[in-house]
Amino acid sequence: MSVMKEKITIGLVEDQLLFRNGIHAILSGWEDLEVIYESGDGYSVIESLEKAEQIPDVMLVDLSLPSNGDKPYSGEQLTIDLAEYFPTVKVLILSAHQDEKFIARLIEIGAHGYLVKDSDPVEVYQAITTVYEKGAYINQMTLMAIQRNIGKRTQSILQPTSDLTSRELEVLGLVCQQYTAEEIGEKLFISVKTVNGHRANLLLKTGSRNVAGLVMYAIRNELVKF
Amino acid sequence: MSVMKEKITIGLVEDQLLFRNGIHAILSGWEDLEVIYESGDGYSVIESLEKAEQIPDVMLVDLSLPSNGDKPYSGEQLTIDLAEYFPTVKVLILSAHQDEKFIARLIEIGAHGYLVKDSDPVEVYQAITTVYEKGAYINQMTLMAIQRNIGKRTQSILQPTSDLTSRELEVLGLVCQQYTAEEIGEKLFISVKTVNGHRANLLLKTGSRNVAGLVMYAIRNELVKF
DNA sequence: TCTCAAACGGGTATAAATAACCATTGAATA
DNA sequence: TATTCAATGGTTATTTATACCCGTTTGAGA
What we know:
Chain A has 226 residues and is of the alpha/beta class.
């Protein structure tokens, strides 16, 4: 620890390369910030941080990380894992959404701040320095979200997809593509009965009433492209 | 027109402020580029460009612009309008999606190039210079999308929502919330038959086969929150 | 070895959605 | 005024989806 002012070290976890580079470029405009870690997905973050020489002071984490193949690893999950493995790291969530449930949930599981993606760069800077110095950055929006959701059981935005088997995911994808159970059976070379079996499990596991719910679930959890 | 090398002027249309600033910062790294116009939505672009002293050479347009209130103005619509009012302006689409239908459609209606948001900044630079010099930037992905969709009737990603009446939108919203036709009838104080009538019209207008299609349509067009 | 869950197949119902048609009202508009 | 169209309500059938029940096989793990 030298006497001179140290830079706040930043980690970026954001799938869109262009956006990530953009933030990087923006943050580089401040001399007291330094991006020392970047990742395009959440899978390897914990592992690579454990090997890293230096752990970032603040992690900017995109809430909607992509599902890489079958096992999605969301910003939510990463927040949980960071809180467990690197409790000293401050986590700032970046999200396109401004949903109160999202916000309250993320704060609850260990995020130290929540920023929407159309924030002003200056606010991002303030959030970073504040979260570094004070341990938390709670702006007006976040505070209200927390207040209004105190006592409410916040539920995971991304329910653990591990609940869904690979076959179920496959069926879910085809359901979203407007295929009927019979067509899905043909495509997967299984009986309609089996397809309906999977579908029934999907309804149960996702807590849906019908296909509409399944599609919404799939999209919320980014299991299908749209 | 002076003899010295002129800068390529850029316009940015992107709703997420942070992303927009990020691109701006990235592009500022090249001396031969200059961002001279920015907008967070598509509504006022044509109007404000008509008043502007200088028209950008290249416009970077986010495909998924937000629907401001009731009348959405998509990147697709902006592309069409730019082609009409400013035919000399080169339009580069920025999109989070890599869907071939999207790409083919955008090129068809006048876009000069298509970039996904996790492109490398260098590619963005190349796209800008190429589209400026050659009039088009077609990369591997775009080319394949075009080739595979030649002859196919490309359909608008965001069909004009005006196609849907307010009542139909109401029904669509409730369908997405997993209500059955009967429940929707109760909620809206109309007969199940009428609800089914609306639903049939919705299927027809959106070109869907079933509810799954309706939900996907609603989400694609940002008619429902998710 | 035993157990459990996943994937598979089937039967029998009912509920719901979808596909055809048809007709009336009222509001907007050419 | 005549026309159009959204919104309403209807009939009749068929197709799908959903909800119960029943089972077997297989592989992973305790």
